[in-house]
Structure formats: structure tokens, C-alpha cells
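Hi W.,

Here's what went into the run:
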Amino acid sequence: MSQLSTAWKLSIAEAAAGISNNSFSSSALTRMMLDRIAAIDPKLLAYVTVLKDDALKAAAAADKEMASGTYRSPLHGIPIAIKDIFDTKGVRTMAGSRVRANYVPERDCTVVRKLREAGAVILGKVTTHEFAFGFDSRPTRNAWNLDHIPSGSSGGSGAAIAAGLCFAATGSDTGGSIRAPAAANGIAGIKPTYGRVSKAGVAVLSWSLDHAGPMARTVRDLAILLNIMAGRDDLDPHTKDVPVPDYTASLTGDISGMRLGVPTNYFTDDVAPAAADAFAKALERLESLGARAVPVDIAELDGVLDCMLAIAMSEASTYHQASLRANPDLFEDETRLLLEAGEMMLATTYINAQRARVAIKAAFREALGGVDVILTPTQPTTALKIGQSMSRIGAREESVFAVSARFCAPLNLSGLPVASVPCGFSPEKMPIGLQIIGKPFDEATVLRVADAFERNTEWHTNYPPIAG
Amino acid sequence: MTEKKIEPNDVEQLAKFLDLKLKQDDSQSIASMLTDIRASVYRKASALKQDAPLSIVFEARP
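Here's what came out:
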């Protein structure tokens, strides 16, 4: 498939091959994406800013460079989008908030700098929930059903990729904000290990819980992006000097003999039938490839969401301390409420939550001791309807926050690498995600399992009706 | 100690001390949220040894 009119369906790897064999140029690919954004995004509302002239200029430069024999990376000439909490030089970066209405960064954040250096063409900035502190990502719609939320906070990234309005996008994840919108929109995403990808120049929600990572249509594309994004950064003291392997090399398709941990607690509580069924079938498929399911009990997960909230609210309130006094009315009501409450969190509550986190990390470490990865549903259910404030699964009624973060947030507290890949649809044709959790700094194994699953399923080849 | 509820009045007093202009009607929600989170985290931390460490450093290997 190398025709330009259908090139939006290609993976990054396939699009790079198309550029390389002169099926189309980066300029043509970029124009095609810009035309699609103009036609489709007025309904989807994923883009905050479209950088038409800059993108066409970057694509022309990429074409010229490649014609002269300079090939920077598999991302050279590929049009992508950037979540609007990643600083972009000279381009307004609002973080979804009126507080930042006039904020134009003087430099790129580290991740954007690396992506540009790799030759990526930046189409524009995509929606985030205000300061990434939530899951509905207004005003963006779910690519599969415009009446539903795209989840969040990287909702613009998830919806834009699913609708074929970019080949990939950046995401950030404090309690599930890469994985939840990936699952909700039927695409792939990975939250790398804490310290693997620089957050320098990314608006802070919570210093100790925030992670940055890639979102894309395929697992190989995640590997290509992570190769570029990962690594120690002097500008981010949280990053670790751990060697970055070539993640694409781990995508062998072979998972025979691997041990897949399957939780017997917490992640089995109150899962909607469609998500539970899709998870069971995903596990069967992986076992059919020669992997072995091993039951694991993960201790210390009671109260995990409150620990996450105590930490996130305290740290976010610290970050916004001045703005909350100077311009409180500029925050959305729900963000303001969380920040006000965070100001009043006791220091002992914050410290106890951080101490509990040590125990949570140890519990995951123990559970991972006898297995290669742990599998769970990414979300207990599919994306909620816009305006729906509560979710009901059986007798359990919970907030949008709770249902969205329940299976994701433990991995922010533990800092472990974790990917989400599509693994099915509900009867209402809403996507469902499979979560794959790995050992610290072992993104390669997470991606290997995710890729093997993807090679043997067709969920990632489905496109929502809005994509055309 | 953990059973004591934080009341909207407590929240309003604290807001004054912190020089925070609360949005109208937020004090009830904040009081409930803080009461719940504080009790839940306290319960969890009570199960830890008194000298259980505080560390947010992430090691390269388990």
C-alpha cells in the first residue's frame, strides 16, 4: 500500500519506506495530513494549533536532505503531533488552560528537540486535559464515537492518531494519561520507566508521578519513537543513565517460553464483561504463541488511588501555588477544586503516601520476580459518554477519575514500564486495551510481548468511521 | 484521630490562613475529599513499620 490517498493508514515504518522508495515525498505526506486535519478535525477537535506553514517548510527541508543522501532516522519526514503540554519553541503551549493563554516557550522541550533532530515534521499541538489533571480532554471527542470522551489526559493524541490525523504523537502519563486514551481510541501507547524519558520542558502535574512517552498506531512505531525519545538528560535530574537499547531489535515475534503474570486480585475487581472477555481472549492468544500464564498476587494495592491522589494533588498545588492566588478564576472548576484541596493536604498524608509507595513498588517487584511481564486490562470498561460523571460496573459506582485511573495509576506509583495495545471492541464498537507491565527499564520485553500480540491479531488494523 | 471529619468550616478557616480565595461551594467537596484521602492513606501507612523508608528513587533493576 503506497498510494498517497490511503497513506494515512500506514505505520511510521511503512510511511518511511514509502518516502525512501519515492512512492511519495514528505511534503506530499504532510499536505495529505493537513488536508485531513482541515476536513475531519472540525468534528473531532483534537488539534489546538495547526502549524501548516512550519510543517510544510520542515517537510520540504526533509525532502531536500533525503534527496542529498542525509537520512536522519525512520522518523525523517514523518508528520506527527505534540501534546500541548510539551514546550515548542515559538508556538503557544497552553497546557489546556487559560492560565497559559499567552505562554510561548523560547525553546523546545527535550523530547521535541530530539524528535525534530530525528527529522520529524510537527503538524501541530493536540489537546490535553487542563494541565493533564483529568481524563475527559475537553473539547476533543472519541474517534470511534463522537458522543464519548477520548479519555485523557492525552486525549488529543489518542483521537488524532486513531482518526489518521498524524502518524504518532507525544503523551504524558501521571495516572494513566498515555494508556487510557490509547485504549479508549484503539491505538498503542507506552509509559516508559520513570527516568527513561526526559520531562524537561513538559508542564508539571506531579514531579514524582509524571512520565513522558510515545503514542502511535503500532508497537513498532512506539519502538521507533522510544529509540529517539529515551535517554538521560542533563536538564531533567529524574532521568537515569541507563543504556538505551535499540527497541526495534526486540520485536522478534517470539514469546515462546515467556511467563505472563496474570493478577488474581485488584485487576480482576469489577471489570465490565466486554473488557473481561477481551482480556481472556488476549491471554489465550498469547498462550497459543508459546507463552505460559502464571497467576500472580500483587499485594499492597488497597488504597492505591488515594495514595496517588495525595501525591498528585500536593505536588500539583505546589506547582500552581502562585497562579492559584493570582488568577484562580482562570482554572477550570474541577482543576481549581483539586488544587485548592491539594493546598490543604497534610504533609504527613503526603509523606505517608510516598512511604506506602515504597511498599507498592516492592509488591510489584515481588510479583514480577517469577514472570517476564504482568498483563491486565488497561481499563475496567470502555470510554464513557461526554458529560457522564459516574461509571457503573455491576454494583460498583465510581467517578470518571476512579474508573480511568484504577488499573493505570498503580504503575505510576511503581514507576514501571507499561504499554497498552488494542485487544478488542465492546458490542457498541468501542475499543478495549490490554496492559503489559514490565520490569524497571525493561521496555524491550514489554514491546516484544506487545508486538507479538499485535502480529497475531488484527485489532490495530481497524479504523474508526470518522477516518473515512 | 483518623475518624475525625474535616468540616467545611475548617476548610474555610484554612483557606483564609493560606490566602486562598475558594470558589463558592468548594469547601464541602474539599472537606469530603481531604477526610477520605487522609483516612485512607493513614490506614495504609499504619500497616507499615514505623521506620519504613521514604524513597522516590527508582533503581535500574529490581
